[in-house]
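Milestone 3.1: sequence recovery, worked example.
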């Protein structure tokens, strides 16, 4: 009991100091963001190898840009790669030039994009609550800082963000550009009204952010053709999103902003104040030149591949077998935003977004929650309608989900107006009678969900399928002990949430979920990444090193039965992919018949596929066996007629 009171008193003293010293609050906030970002995105970022199949495709295309100096057309393994626009390749290539060609450089753009996003989200949530306090003529710095901290932590510490912020592909960069653009739009939209709809600098009273920096500054006069700084940032970030993933970078933000403005009845008014024509020119000026150059160089090949196949067909048809039922993204959001996803229904219902007249009567900044709802719902609906479905597609709605849940919890956070209250931080909460029954039910759903999650993790080996790249997959996982650790973490969290629900300690509940996920990341996900890397990717890296040493000049490398682009990245050698054993046998015979030097080739194959080739012991030389893979040299034998063959 004494320890509990001591902790309370210490925390109370900290928040009292923050309340009285805004500079301290800003410093603590910066440190908090750095710690959260380092744990979520930076820790061990480059200490594991690239993960096949997608990540090495980006990494090698970026390396080719740096090596060849061709910053227009992306290439992989000698072929053009038109899947994604150039921004992610540029960022990775620049990182290579600064810190070298390694895994850190591959993933650094994703991590930076995620970090920038949570910082801007922290600022936006704090700004919104500061304006709310100004309107109500109260000072609640503790609530502002805690809510902003929760929003940033929820945004960083979830499965979807963790995966893609630690992976060197374009998804996190797209999310960083798109989500930051939407936050900038709202700051410009809400700040315009705060300035009386004209130019000048918005003043914020009763808030520590006043000392930090002015917010929604309108840098122009009403006659200026240029948008204010937040709208300008919106346009620049939209251009970044277009250069990251194409038309979706403007279609989704346009859909969200347009639907929101139509709903609140400010469509024409806001488009005028945004200086839309000038904004379109900015977007075109920043994003179109690269598209023009790559089309000029590659013509219809690029147009058909990128705009036709990778955009239109992905929305209207199933591409690469990525089909899923209509409810797919309900499951993705439930698991990807675990464990906070159980509070999304309460967060959305709390808004009462269907009360249009109410929302239209509010000041602009008070529509922040509604804007987050349109953000969430628009992306969710868009990709639910799309025929091709992948878990990463809904990554851009995760920031909106975090904001919605953080705003729900802001109602339960303490009020520190009474400086003399002995138990300010933890005990100044709404009475149980004022707590929404939906929130109470959500809390118990939280308990059930965590219990179910713990049970599933205890029995994960009975749920997961096999992995052909890892022999004895289930046994290896069980021996690692990670399922037990994961199950214990979430079971303890379930018990603690239940205890705090029974004791009506509402503000502890979200903290338990956040701490539980942080523990899950540190003690399960991070070790699991090393475990998977060692079992799945390390053999390929070791074989790539052997290939570099063993390969003769102009000797061909064949990869049989699988595609592992990491071999291309780590060996810097062109790979010829063949799908079937008989296809490989025929290819070897053709190469042997040509009589060209060298009179051999290297063959990298899964052991099962290699055995199906029925090669005799004297038909090949085994160079190495690593994991599930064999690396052999197949010499071309001479017949009496001097033709080269392998028979």
């Amino acid at each position: 009991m004494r320890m509990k009171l001591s902790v309370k008193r210490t925390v109370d003293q900290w928040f009292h100091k923050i309340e009285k010293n805004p500079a301290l609050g800003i410093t603590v906030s910066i440190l908090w963001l750095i710690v959260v970002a380092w744990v979520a995105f930076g820790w061990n970022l480059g200490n594991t190898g690239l993960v096949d199949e997608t990540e090495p495709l980006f990494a090698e295309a970026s390396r080719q840009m740096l090596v060849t100096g061709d910053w227009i057309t992306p290439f992989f393994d000698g072929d053009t790669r038109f899947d994604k626009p150039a921004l992610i390749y540029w960022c990775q290539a620049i990182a290579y030039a600064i810190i070298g060609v390694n895994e850190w450089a591959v993933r650094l753009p994703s991590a930076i994009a995620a970090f920038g996003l949570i910082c801007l989200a922290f600022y936006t949530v704090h700004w919104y609550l500061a304006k709310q306090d100004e309107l109500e003529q109260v000072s609640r710095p503790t609530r502002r800082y805690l809510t902003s901290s929760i929003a940033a932590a929820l945004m960083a510490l979830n499965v979807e963000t963790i995966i893609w912020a630690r992976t060197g592909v374009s998804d996190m960069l797209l999310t960083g550009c798109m989500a930051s653009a939407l936050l900038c739009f709202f700051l410009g939209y809400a700040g315009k009204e705060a300035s009386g709809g004209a130019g000048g600098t918005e003043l914020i009273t009763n808030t520590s952010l006043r000392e930090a920096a002015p917010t929604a500054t309108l840098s122009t006069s009403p006659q200026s053709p240029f948008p204010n700084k937040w709208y300008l940032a919106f346009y620049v970030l939209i251009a970044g999103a277009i250069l990251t993933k194409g038309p979706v970078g403007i279609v989704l933000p346009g859909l969200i902003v347009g639907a929101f403005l139509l709903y609140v009845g400010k469509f024409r008014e806001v488009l005028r104040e945004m200086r839309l024509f000038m904004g379109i020119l900015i977007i075109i000026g920043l994003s179109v030149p690269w598209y023009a150059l790559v089309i000029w160089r590659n013509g219809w090949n690029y147009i058909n591949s990128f705009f036709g196949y990778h955009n239109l067909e992905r929305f209207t048809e199933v591409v690469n077998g990525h089909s899923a039922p209509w409810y797919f993204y309900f499951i993705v959001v439930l698991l990807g935003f675990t464990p906070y996803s159980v509070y999304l229904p309460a967060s959305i219902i709390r808004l009462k977004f269907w009360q249009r007249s109410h929302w239209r009567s509010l000041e602009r900044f008070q529509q922040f929650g509604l804007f987050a709802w349109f953000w969430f719902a628009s992306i969710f609906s868009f990709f639910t309608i799309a025929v091709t479905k992948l878990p990463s597609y809904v990554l851009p709605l995760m920031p909106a989900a975090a904001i919605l849940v953080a705003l729900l919890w802001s109602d339960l956070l303490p009020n520190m107006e009474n400086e003399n209250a002995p138990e300010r931080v933890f005990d100044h909460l709404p009475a149980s009678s004022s707590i929404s029954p939906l929130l109470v039910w959500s809390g118990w759903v939280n308990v059930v969900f965590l219990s179910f999650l713990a049970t599933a993790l205890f029995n994960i080996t009975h749920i997961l399928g096999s992995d052909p790249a890892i022999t004895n997959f289930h046994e290896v996982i069980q021996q690692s002990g990670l399922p037990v650790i994961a199950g214990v973490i979430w079971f303890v969290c379930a018990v603690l949430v239940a205890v705090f629900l029974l004791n009506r300690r509402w503000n502890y509940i979200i903290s338990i979920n956040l701490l539980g996920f942080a523990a899950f990341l540190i003690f399960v996900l991070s070790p699991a990444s090393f475990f998977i890397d060692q079992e799945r990717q390390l053999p390929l890296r070791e074989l790539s090193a052997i290939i570099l040493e063993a390969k003769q000049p102009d000797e061909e490398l064949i990869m049989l039965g699988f595609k592992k682009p990491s071999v291309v990245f780590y060996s810097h050698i062109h790979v010829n992919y063949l799908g079937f054993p008989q296809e490989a046998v025929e290819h070897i015979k053709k190469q042997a018949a040509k009589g060209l030097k060298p009179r051999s080739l290297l063959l990298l194959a899964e052991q099962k596929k290699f055995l199906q080739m029925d090669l005799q012991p004297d038909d090949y030389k085994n160079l190495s066996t690593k994991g599930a893979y064999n690396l052999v040299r197949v010499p071309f034998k001479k017949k009496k007629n001097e033709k080269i063959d392998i028979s």
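Residues 13 and 146 are 15 Å apart (CA to CA). Residues 2-426 form one domain.
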